[in-house]
Fold each of these.
Amino acid sequence: MDKSSEAYWKATLGLLTKILIVWFLVSFGAGILFAPLLNNIHLGGYPLGFWFAQQGSMYTFVALIFIYAKKMNDIDRKFDVHED
Amino acid sequence: MELQTTIYLVVGLTFALYIGIAFWARAGSTSEFYVAGGGVHPVLNGMATGADWMSAASFISMAGLISNMGYGGGLFLMGWTGGYVLLAMLLAPYLRKFGKFTVPQFIGDRYYSKSAATVAVLCLLVASLTYVIGQMTGVGVAFSRFLGVSKETGVYVGMGVVFVYAVLGGMKGITYTQVAQYVVLIFAYTVPAVFISMHLTGNPIPQLGLGSNLIGSDVSLLQKLDTIVVELGFGQYTTTTAGSTLNMFVYTLSLMIGTAGLPHVIMRFFTVPTVKDARSSAGWALVFIAILYTTAPAVAAMAKTNLLRTITPGVVTQNADVYAKDSAIQYAERPDWMNRWEKTGLLKFEDKNGDGRIQYYNDKVKDEAVKAKMDAAGWKGNELTVNADIIVLANPEIALLPNWVIALVAAGGLAAALSTAAGLLLAISSAISHDLVKGVFNPKISEKGELMAGKIAMACSIVVAGYLGLNPPGFAAGTVALAFGIAASSLFPAIMMGIFSKKMNKEGAIAGMLFGLFITLFYVFAHKGLFFIKGTEYLPLIGGPNSFFGITPEAFGAVGAMFNFIVAFAVDKFTAEPPEHIQHLVESVRTPRGAKAVDGAHA
């Protein structure tokens, strides 16, 4: 593996790690582990922990995939490995 | 127009549409048959994936489950959507770059081993078959309830329709039909939800309505629901977890990994033109899925509120005392829809204390103070049982919506079941015709011969699925856990390591798959019986039910996946590295440049 493709893979893994941290925090963090704590805060009529488990995590997931797709395309272009 | 006529009309029109589309999109080559020629637009592919993914279980059962479980039901919502993040980032773009028709083919080529491919075929067949049984049963039930035909006729009609468009059109026909089915099912799901949300909270958007105050009151819907269900002895709606917190955590993770590892979902990403499209298509798929999945919790809580309002009107609208003598309605004055559903046996009433009123509560409540109040009120046990599956189907009737909405829900339920069945059948037939017939038994088969083999395999799968749908083995319900467990514990880790570890060799991957599979089967069978045969459970051997840190068998897939990874890396350490050309293959899979049209050639 040459230098550039090594750097490309490193950049990819870096992006994956960041996205997976957010993925974990909204669902397993806010939706499950910290839900009892967050339920003390209210979002309209929603207790916040409940909202994360049944609404918020899903909205975040959608956003995460599009952010990933966009950033990944940027990385492809930067390392000149994008499709034509 | 009469309800029955309206239903016939709406369902008939949607079926004509599906068959019309299938005729227009006939498959002429193996590439069109397996991957729709690899030229489906990412947004359309996202919609088709949505319909493929959302089965009768999502459409009919999920909201009912959440309605009963409350907060804990969120594990289905997070699990079945969070898996798409994993799929989009860890698998889809790389498998698209790899550019072959099927999942077993990737595993076979990457691990340079026919045994690895065969293990993958086996996992795929078990996971997909158990799923398809459920869909065909769902089709039969939906037909018999809405069209007034027998369940058998329902299954035959369903088989006929799937046969026409799946065998004729292959992936191409299925994909474009699924786009239409998505539109039907999403309307069918959201229209009643909008009406009901409007009715209860004045807010037409269910996702916002769920967080709003009840109309004409300054108490939020969820708070009101919490208060009433606690008084009735149930767990508080917004905080009750599914088992322990650990179990909920692991269960959610299992569903996520299982979702990402299910072959009929992964296959969909072979149909888009480029790697870039594979990434965004997963996002679009999740958008279309999330429209239904974020509506479901609103449907769940509102259906529960409506049910309680029907039985105890004063309690929900005027803060009347739950335990008062006249709080519940008289059985004789119950609304028509209750009467209709009683006939199906899915809703049952038994007047245990002989007061002619309907007492609906949890008679196994632990809280002594609540129990004392119930006894003082003269309640002699819960008198109403409501099957969770009727929540979505009866919802429009409970809210007294017009006939065309009820007809739409019928068409939507059928669209959900048929679209998923078709996707699964394609996964099964491609595993048989492409991975077994062409890959193992007869590599020299011509394209025409393979296409024919694919169609025959699909026709046979439909007959088998139909037969099993008519005579569902007693284990059908329990095996869904198995389908997810297998996808999570064997397929997902093998594919992921194939991409993210250049050095993973065939010994490691095969040992990992087999061990993950074995340990998951061992734990599931301990609870549900060997191959689901009643009486062969061996719970004492593993130390009682849920003995592994209190984890239920449905949630065990994530643990199996963990073992798979550990065993694979351990074995990999002590065996030879994969050959040079395989390491180059992995490098090339990692970069998008040079992605070509998907083809089926076996390396």
Note: The longest strand of chain A covers residues 42-43.
Amino acid sequence: MLSPSSGNTVIKSKLIGRRMFLLTAAKAIVTFGIIGRLVSLQINERSKYKTLSDKNRFREWKLAPERGVIRDFFDKEIASNQQVYQVHLIPENSKDIEKLFVRLKTILNITEKKLFYLRRVIAKQKPWEPIIVSDNITWSEFSRLNLFLHELEGVKPIVSVARMYPDNSSAHILGYVSQVSAKDLQTKKYLKDLHVPGMSIGKTGLERKLDEEIIGKIGFQRYEVNAYGKRIKQILINEGQAGKSFKTTLDFEVQKFTSELLKDKAAAVCVMDVYNGDIVSLVSSPTFEPNEFVHGLDKTYWNSLIKNEMKPLTNKTIAGLYPPGSTIKTLVALSALENGVIKPLDTFKCEGKIELYGEKFHCWEKDGHGIVNLRKGIQRSCDVYFYEIARKLGVDRLSETAKKFGLGKKVLNGFIEERAGVVPNTKWKKKFIGQNWYLGETLHSGIGQGYFQSTPLQLCLMTAQIANGGFEIKPRIIFDKKNNNLREYIKYKNENPNDPLPTDLLVSNFELKPLFKNQEHINLIKDAMFSSSNEPGGTSYRHRWENKKFTFAGKTGSSQIKRFTEAQREAEVKQESLPYKDRDHALFVAYAPYNDPKYAISVLVEHGGSGGKAAAPIAKKVIKKVLERHELRKRIDSLLGEQV
Amino acid sequence: MFRARSIQSSLSIKDKILSIDYILVISIFILGLISILAMYSTDGGELKYHTKSHILRFFVFFGMFLTLSFIQIRFWHSQSYLIYILFFILLLGVKYFGLTSSGSKRWLDLYFMNLQPSELMKIGLILFLAKYYHRTSIENLNRVRYLFLPVVVLIAPIILVATQPDLGTALLIAAGGLTVAWLAGVRVKFFAFSGLAFLALLPIAISFLKPYQKSRILTFLNPERDPLGAGYQIIQSKIAIGSGGLFGKGFLQGSQSYLDYLPEKHTDFIFTLFSEEFGFFGSLFILFLYAIIVWRIIKIGNVTRSNFGKLFCYGFGTAFFIYVVVNMMMVLGLLPIVGSPLPIMSYGGSSMMAIMLGLGIVMSCKVYKDTPVN
């Protein structure tokens, strides 16, 4: 039955079956391998791949938030926003970027340098991220762009908002905004999740101080996109949040008025409410144009700012350091009184100079002031009188008082440009100069020269704290409804002059911090300042206001840049005849009105000569302006008070 | 001889129909239905060209498979060499009259369809070698003289296909042929020798590779090498599969394929699409269906009496398994992208035709399992 080969066939079948069995085992192993791979991808790593898949699917375009505005006390916008026209470009939507650039150049005003920069940006970022070709084009350019839009694939005309400063009188205190730099991204943590191409951030002044809050929260649009980057549908839109707006204590009208007064001078003016420390005006001159910084700075303009020896970019009110000169005499006298070194009626004879260990110390009045007591010493600003009391007082006690009144430290919060200045004493000199203190230096300190360095704002604060009866106040520039109780305290005292309660108890009831031991001493200084401004012989007598409403009490000062040589002194060289750079800085501090102090002011004119001549006239005008607006200010204050 | 004839003739039509392996038929049918759903998804949830023509092809070739099941096994045995020669002529035809698409010449224009003879050759070679080793006695099997013909019929089509160029299909054809030879009893040492020879020739072979083929191999070794270029497919496929998770994103919800991140989603990457939408359990189900199909084919090989039938079923079953795992391993990032379709699931008429032809011959082995072939 079986063919001869059938045995053979059976053996072969067995062989085939055996080998098939081996193959089947191999297949099982491979199958488990595939299942293992599926387990690893779809179970173990599924969240990783889900994220990657969503990353594929979704793309987000960030939306720059609108920056908050900054208003003055009367709610006038002093840093506002304006509509601007921009050109954005999404590289992946353009077939040929180079051709597009050529076409754009014929429509817009783009330099070759800008194109070079754009090419670099395109190479760096993702192809779907928009780049900003131009962030501020004119309306006519914008309409021309829209006309040719059909041949400009990838280009997007955008109407956006950007910072706009209606006036440059407050440029220094407001600061300016400009493009985020690589360094900003490194140093400022809050920018990390916030950065949108083309966004501006505050670089100086209030813009910088408030940046974190004023910048707002970023928005985004989330789209589902296909593999070719085409948007399929919008999944989510988050409008973001416009930045917080801020109200300041500044008075825009006073800012403008003061700025106009200071034109062409290198000068600074600070005006402060003596009770709550509200800064009414803070002007530095010469000023600059902050709008120039918003859309990329013009190089020639920048160079002109940098090369100007009047330093228009420096905020002289808080970043300019000057010896306080004779304005410090108020504190020297106060310190001497408080420490019991002199009595108000103690006299010294001024013969124009004194000699100490063979060194001559001159009074500014060559012929001397004769017999001088405290009141006359301040009124005439007699240097010899202050040499004498400084010698008795010693520099360390003087520095203690000066520091108490706010010199030698930063008085505003959060301004990187603000400087602390120097209140010297023996320890300070040992530490920073490495030498012992000389008595002669005490004498120089007594008239605010030598190592003394202060900002105009510090001097304004010092004056305000004298004017309010010697209580500590904190200068502030951001409007705050909360007020200290100083006004109520003064009112209470005026109404109950014979109240049996001791001062310190009252102070604790009103939560005030007195800077004096005996308030009578403060009053003596205030009276002496009055005489300096309003009695014949006073250093600023010529610039007084007769009108009781505006009457101020002040103190002049001039800080020496270069020591006068004996020869110059003999020749009676006038400041005006010196080269500009060698002239003294003119200073003037005052409070007004005298009988009911409301505001303190400090004026500095760089190389202005004497304080009485150069600074006091400016103070006079500003004081009038500020006091004229006081009623208006008070009305707003009480209105806001009611709302609380 | 006579008795065998009587057995065969005694089979009634009813017997024949009853002897069909229904588990196999149903599994293939279910897989076909799933493939239609997957194709529908690749078309973005609309009844478009790919889906329509896939439906048509599936049913036509499924019908062909059932019809071929009733052709006598003896016919397949007797016509094996002829079928091989016919397919080889078609392959030669491609070389001279073929259609060129994206840089390779693989298709013949037959007016009603574009035929890819290399797919048919996968079956043709198995058929040829099954007959050859059925006839070769066990003593002669390992004689060098008897190795000559198999080597020629193996190498000739592979060279033709590899130079189309279509490296993936060439390797799959070789896999089928080598499987049959090994199953028939050719000694391992011959495979080892030829393996060594292949390794020795590898540098020369590499120099013949097109730049894109070299890059594919390099990319397989390190997909992140060029994430937007050649590595893109592997990365996107892994993302699609991985993001499917346990239960998948849901039918028509596969964002990777819907948003065109997935390349070649109709053909080579159809499993990726399915896996993204139906997740781990869906993938396991597909794997399960393929396992059943392979199991049934092997089982038919077990019950069929002739060595020709056994060799064909085992050879085809193993080749089928290899096609499936090569495709899956490719989309799972375990093998380089060589371009091999997933049997039945992938879009493509020639592949469908070849698989159904193979299945038809397997089923005929079942129906005529007791019929001697010669």
Note: The interface with chain B takes residues 1, 5, 8-9, 11-13, 15-17, 19-20, 23-24, 27, 30-31, 33-35, 37-39, 41-43, 45-46, 48-50, 52-54, 56-57, 224-228, 232 of chain A (CB under 8 Å).
